[in-house]
């Protein structure tokens, strides 16, 4: 469908479609002829959108036409979509692993327009509010960024036949798979119906307009600003320094950056009779994914042009389909100088020169591939530049400072970062006038006659006036002294008034006024002006009044202070003053001292002094530290000659205003005695005594036990450092923690008491009862028990006599079900299973043990549970 629009405007009464999250666009046109002085053009535009975005292409879309030279608005058009196509990657190839899902919806718009010839020509534009989010080569955190897509119709000022033009038309395949950090090629080739010469280059992508809510809207007039490129990217390097474009073919080749989305804009210049008559642009957001391609992937060239002659070789393709790798290096005569079958290797070249690098993978296998590249080995090349002039709409000069050890620097490709499309140069030291303020990322790509190429980036802050700063803004001098003013900036300085001034056209004039004067300075940087001023106050003497004499406590720090208009100070004695040149320094003294201060303003001086008298602190003695047993007290013994005193803390003391209070702390505590007097030191003297409280003794004699006559019993007490057992019956030693007991006669129970002492002599006690049986080693089991929770006979326990251990003691009910099991006589059965009471009746028990002589013991019997 074609629609003819002749100077008319279709207003926004048509339904607005969302026009955001677009991934690219391009435009071309065909010259159809001349009618009544009007030139007719058939215009075709394409907009690209990711199929998975859940958005819609604009329908209709608004186009605008503007005068290319002046930006004057000519007309707006609302054009319906002719059709929508879909490009889908269906067969990515057998040598690609983890292939991406690549799918584009392409909206096609077609219309005719009649325009009179214009000297400057025309720009046709369409804008969208938002590109896709998260574009990796733009400044992080910049937010949503729109897009502008354009086509240019030539004027007749530079080429008479310019308006009779068929624009260049991009013919490259829009469907491509690019894997992160892999070699790739992507064609932006175009054809021209007029057979004009075509020249390709990367260009800055344009931001969009400001429509509300993502709705479609008429485009704003040119010029169009550049998107904000991030660090290490730019209009000339949208995919980084490892990706280049062939100026003659439009083929992009190189090593892709990491996975993500990157905006790439290519412009093709139409050159007729040696004159660039128009520039057409294609803008795409290219998705690079974490797929891998089994390929022999190397950089376009190896630039060993900085300092090292060692080349590190590794295949940039990390595909798991690569099973073999062969590297080979050749000198300039084609002679092989190095071979390796390692996936990663290195080689140090013995001399400078050009070398060929060959990489072969999967030789004679599936997905075999090979590639060649050149290594430039000429270390010592350092690209650099300086900047002179940084003012808005004033010329800024960029001065090449590149150096090389081999050959000469022979080309310069500048990108000044202004985003105008004309902010480039190939001159060694070009001049450029910025059209906007702010930080500009300037890029210089320099090459040498030896083939070396490198890039340097610098940020330039473009301002509306040159930076100007002063060493000081207000100063004081004393007649007849002078002072040197100091301004900091780049450009031509001029000061005034010039009365009593020398060198008024320098950054550092000297002035010698006799009255207070304000001096103004102007900085002129290529016609860019800034101003500032310095006030010089003039006096004929120094005012100085030191603080009054004072008294301090001996050894304290005091802040000396004064009132003065002096500029410099010198206190003495120097060894008692911290920072003796400060107006208000700190002083530390043990003795009464007279401090002198000299204040000066140039050659004028004044002298004063202050006497600081020292008085000793009141003396307090809290007595010696002591240690007490847990839950006991200590009597403190303090002393002082001061008038008053007090103890702290108060919670565990019997009194606060007596010298010998009783301290009863529950834990170790530091008690502070404060003493006060009226001798001149207003601060108290302090002393501290620490009462350390030993922890409570955890005395333990062991658990009650049973033995048989003749059996050795090892007792074991714990909790202290000294022990005393009572009585001594059967014990080998009553003064150790672990005496051995042996008995010749039976006993119903021998009670032992053990006194346990700590390192301070504190004592606590514990008890143990030993029953002695006159029998063979046995395990005694009661024949009945009544677990009715009356505190008597509620648990049934085995009683082991003469046993070293119980392997098990088990109780079964009449159905053979195990109701209880233990391996110690300390545990007993309470007549329940899982908390459920068992019925009265007869139960069977079985015990297996080992006696103290090591003989096995086995016994069984019955018991009665009584409810």
Automatic annotation (TrEMBL):
SMART domains: PKD (SM00089). Residues 1-19 form the signal peptide. Residues 411-462 form the PKD domain. It comes from the Bacteria. Transmembrane segments: none annotated. The keyword Ribosomal protein does not apply. The keyword Lipid biosynthesis does not apply. Keywords: Signal. It holds the Pfam family CHU_C. This is PKD domain-containing protein. It comes from Niastella populi.
């Amino acid at each position: 469908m074609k629609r003819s629009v002749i100077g008319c405007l279709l207003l926004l009464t048509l339904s607005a479609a969302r026009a955001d999250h677009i991934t690219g666009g391009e435009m071309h046109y065909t010259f159809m002829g001349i009618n009544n002085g009007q030139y007719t053009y058939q215009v075709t535009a394409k907009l690209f959108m990711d199929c998975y975005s859940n958005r819609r292409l604009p329908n209709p879309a608004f186009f605008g036409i503007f005068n290319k030279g002046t930006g004057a608005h000519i007309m707006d058009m609302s054009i319906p979509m002719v059709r929508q196509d879909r490009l889908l990657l269906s067969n990515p190839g057998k040598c690609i692993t983890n292939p991406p899902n690549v799918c584009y919806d392409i909206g096609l718009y077609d219309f005719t327009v009649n325009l009179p010839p214009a000297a400057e020509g025309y720009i046709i534009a369409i804008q969208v509010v938002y590109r896709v989010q998260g574009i990796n080569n733009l400044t992080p955190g910049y937010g949503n960024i729109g897009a502008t897509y354009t086509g240019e119709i030539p004027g007749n000022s530079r080429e008479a036949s310019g308006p009779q033009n068929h624009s260049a038309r991009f013919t490259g395949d829009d469907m491509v798979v690019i894997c992160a950090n892999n070699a790739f090629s992507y064609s932006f080739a175009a054809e021209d119906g007029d057979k004009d010469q075509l020249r390709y280059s990367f260009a800055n992508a344009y931001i969009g307009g400001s429509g509300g809510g993502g709705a479609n809207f008429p485009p704003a007039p040119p010029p169009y600003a550049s998107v904000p490129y991030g660090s290490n990217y730019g209009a000339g390097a949208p995919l980084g320094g490892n990706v280049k474009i062939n100026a003659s073919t439009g083929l992009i080749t190189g090593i892709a950056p990491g996975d993500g989305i990157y905006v790439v804009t290519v412009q093709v210049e139409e050159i007729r009779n040696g004159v660039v008559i128009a520039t057409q642009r294609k803008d795409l957001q290219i998705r690079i994914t974490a797929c891998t391609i089994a390929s022999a992937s190397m950089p376009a060239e190896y630039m060993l042009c900085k300092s090292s002659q060692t080349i590190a070789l590794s295949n940039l393709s990390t595909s798991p389909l690569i099973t073999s790798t062969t590297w080979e290096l050749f000198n300039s005569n084609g002679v092989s100088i190095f071979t390796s079958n390692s996936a990663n290797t290195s080689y140090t070249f013995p001399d400078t020169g050009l070398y060929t690098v060959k990489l072969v993978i999967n030789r004679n296998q599936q997905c075999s591939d090979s590639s060649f590249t050149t290594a430039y080995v000429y270390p010592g090349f350092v690209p650099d530049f300086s900047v002179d002039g940084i003012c808005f709409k004033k010329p800024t000069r960029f001065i090449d400072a590149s150096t090389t050890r081999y050959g000469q620097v022979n080309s310069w490709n500048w990108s000044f970062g202004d985003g105008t499309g004309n902010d480039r140069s190939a001159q060694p030291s070009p001049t450029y006038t910025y059209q906007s303020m702010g930080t500009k990322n300037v890029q210089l790509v320099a090459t040498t006659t030896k083939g070396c190429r490198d890039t340097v980036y610098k940020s330039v802050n473009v301002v509306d006036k040159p930076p100007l700063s002063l060493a000081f803004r207000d100063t004081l001098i004393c007649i007849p002294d002078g002072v040197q003013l100091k301004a900091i900036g780049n450009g031509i300085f001029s000061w005034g008034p010039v009365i009593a001034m020398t060198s008024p056209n320098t950054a550092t004039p000297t002035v010698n006024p006799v009255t207070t004067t304000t001096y103004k300075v102007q900085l002129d940087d290529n016609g860019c002006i800034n101003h500032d001023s310095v006030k010089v106050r003039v006096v004929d003497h120094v005012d100085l009044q030191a603080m009054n004499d004072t008294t301090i406590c001996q050894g304290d720090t005091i802040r000396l202070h004064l009132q003065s208009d002096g500029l410099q100070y010198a206190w003495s004695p120097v060894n008692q003053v911290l920072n003796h040149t400060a107006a208000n320094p700190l002083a530390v003294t043990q003795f009464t001292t007279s401090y002198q201060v000299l204040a000066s303003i140039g050659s004028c001086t004044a002298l004063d002094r202050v006497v600081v008298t020292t008085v000793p602190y009141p003396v307090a003695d809290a007595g010696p530290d002591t240690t007490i047993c847990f839950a006991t007290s200590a009597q403190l013994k303090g002393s002082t000659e001061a008038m008053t005193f007090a103890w702290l803390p108060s919670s565990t003391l019997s009194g606060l205003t007596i010298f010998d209070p009783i301290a009863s702390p529950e834990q170790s505590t530091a008690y502070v005695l404060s003493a006060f007097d009226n001798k001149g030191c207003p601060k108290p003297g302090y002393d501290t005594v620490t009462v350390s409280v030993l922890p409570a003794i955890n005395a333990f004699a062991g658990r009650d036990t049973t033995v048989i006559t003749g059996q050795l019993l090892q007792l074991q007490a714990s909790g202290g450092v000294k022990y005393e057992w009572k009585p001594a019956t059967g014990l080998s030693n009553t003064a150790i923690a672990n005496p051995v007991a042996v008995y010749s006669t039976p006993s119903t129970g021998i009670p032992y008491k053990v006194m346990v002492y700590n390192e301070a002599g504190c004592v606590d006690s514990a008890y143990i009862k030993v029953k002695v049986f006159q029998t063979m080693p046995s395990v005694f089991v009661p024949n009945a028990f009544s677990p009715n929770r009356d505190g008597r006979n509620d648990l049934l326990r085995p009683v082991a006599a003469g046993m070293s251990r119980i392997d098990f003691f088990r109780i079964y009910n009449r159905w053979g079900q195990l109701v209880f099991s233990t391996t110690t006589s300390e545990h007993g059965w309470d007549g329940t299973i899982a908390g459920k009471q068992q019925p009265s009746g007869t139960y069977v028990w079985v015990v297996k043990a080992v006696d103290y002589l090591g003989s096995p013991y086995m016994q069984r019997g019955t018991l009665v549970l009584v409810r």
